[in-house]
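Attaching the record inline, Q. Sequence:
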Amino acid sequence: AKPHWVQAIKDTEAAVEDTLYWDCRASGKPKPSYRWLKNGEQLSIEGRIQIENGALTISNLNLTDSGRYQCIAENKHGVIYSSAELRVVASAPDFSKSPMKKLIQVQIGSTVDFECKPKASPKAKCSWKKGGEQLHENERIMFLKDGGLRIANVTKADAGSYMCLATNQFGTASGSTSLIVTEPTRITLAPSNMDVTVGESVVLPCQVQHDPILDISFTWYFNGTLTDFKKDASHFEKVGGSASGDLMIRNIQLKHSGKYVCMVKTEVDSVASAADLIVRGSPGPPEHVKVDEITDTTAQISWQEGTDNHSPVTTYTIQARTPFSVGWQRVTTVPEVIDGKTFTTTVVDLNPWVEYEFRVVASNKIGGGEPSLPSEKVRTEEAVPEIPPSEVSGGGGSRSELVITWDPIPEELQNGEGFGYVVAFRPSGTTTWIQTVVTSPDTPRYVFRNESILPFSPYEVKVGVYNNKGEGPFSSVTTVFSAEEEPSIAPSGVSATSLSSSVIEVSWTAIPWKISSGRLLGYEVRYWNNGGKEESSNRVKAAGNETSVRITGLKSNLAYYTAVRAYNSAGAGPYSATVNATTKKTPPSQPPGNLVWNVTNSRVILNWEEVRAMENESEVTGYKVLYRTSSQPSMNVLSTDKTTAELLLQSNEDYIIEVKATTDGGDGTSSEQILIPRLAS
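Structure, as predicted:
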């Protein structure tokens, strides 16, 4: 096989006095031999220039070694060439391409490295000065091989300006770095582990001592995530001064449990401190609530515990809901108190034949938690009714009736299908009960009709309950009176009197009435006018103890007929004889005119023109003078039968005065009001 390159040579730049090593290797069979050319001429081997297994070494390079070099590998099957340029450079030290750091900040006790790497050919020798004084190696100061300087266990005294002096045969250059030594940052008040309750507000402290020349920043991490104070502003807030990064957590929630880390950073160091926060809350909802067994009044309930939110469950309570309850209600259980380690109980005192749902609420030291989801709906078994109707009473109705009433039993207390009432009654003083069945659960009354029932007689009455499972209890016995007998006598001594143009008063003598006949409710007065019909009469009523009534809103100068009858709960009795009265004529429409007043001392003398009634108006019987001060709400009245009047008025107030005529038919139209100013003025 002819030769094939394994390692070819590449263009190289080297400094004066450096050593060049060019490795030139090829494979081939037989193994190739190597020759080197420089600028096309055979390379002569001398003390500085050596070739070994194809590798070229030139030590202590000088500028004349620059040129074009070729490595030739050959065997009997062929020849291959590899060419490269060697540039030997010579230059004084130069910091322009790799300047030294202007400033290094470190804290007391740390180790600091200064770099000094100027460009120089050959490599420069470096020496160090601090503030013009030459530095020497000791147990803390060390010169590095690459020209750098290392100072261990730095103190405040090490602060200052450090100069590196780089030298080779072509020249010298220098660079400098300033060192600032700072106090280490320390957390003086760190957050501590805390145990809090939902809804509280807490402060996690993070206060530091730091070098005043350093800027400081605080960041908080919650469970490894950086806290965003803008996004979580409703709960998280940074509080305290510039040297404090205290974290306030407002209205703390269960989700805020976890690890909090305060991170403090400066340009030279960083410190951190962590604390665990446990938030305790009321328990979560219990799970998988089931009804395992049901009877007519009990239910066996079981459930599984939910989350305790870092505070153990102390008790469970059971709530139930039916179509008849107002929301969820707490129910009685056996055992009455269910501890936090018990997950089953028996609910008692349920109503038979009612659809129930159940739920469970866990409580701990913090308080009651969220209720569980409801169980499936279950219906208790049927049972005989246990509660009889309440408010059993009655009375009233028509002649020969016994009316019995009660409050119907609500559906949740009927205990089963086929619910109804058993009504039992007997005349007071007898032994045999008469019974009847009312099959509608909503019916509130029963009426027994029989000609043999005497008016207003006492009966003993009781009402029981039943359903498909059997008969329940009766209510306690109560006394109910049969229907009364309507009055049989008409009122006597009836008279009618006209009081004005629109009012007639009717009076009568009360009818005789026995308590044994029941209760007299009152009297009914009917009335109609001369042109009207008796059948379409109007009616007014008076209470049982009254013997007169006023009929108002009538037409003037018209005859009205009226009759009276008594009534009670059974009905009304016969009417009295008819009497009549004629309403008076209307009062005059003309007001008193030309009202004149004169003042003498505190006396006011009034005069006005006489009012003359027209033919269809009531005759004038006198006059009313109505007067009041401007501050009084109601009028004072002075009556006179003349067209003049004298008033004694107080001198310190204005007075308002008007006059109207009086007649049998009522008061006439008022004059215009006059104002009498304060007499004192």
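The domain at 390-481 is CATH 2.60.40.10 (Immunoglobulin-like). The chain has a mean pLDDT of 90.

More tomorrow.
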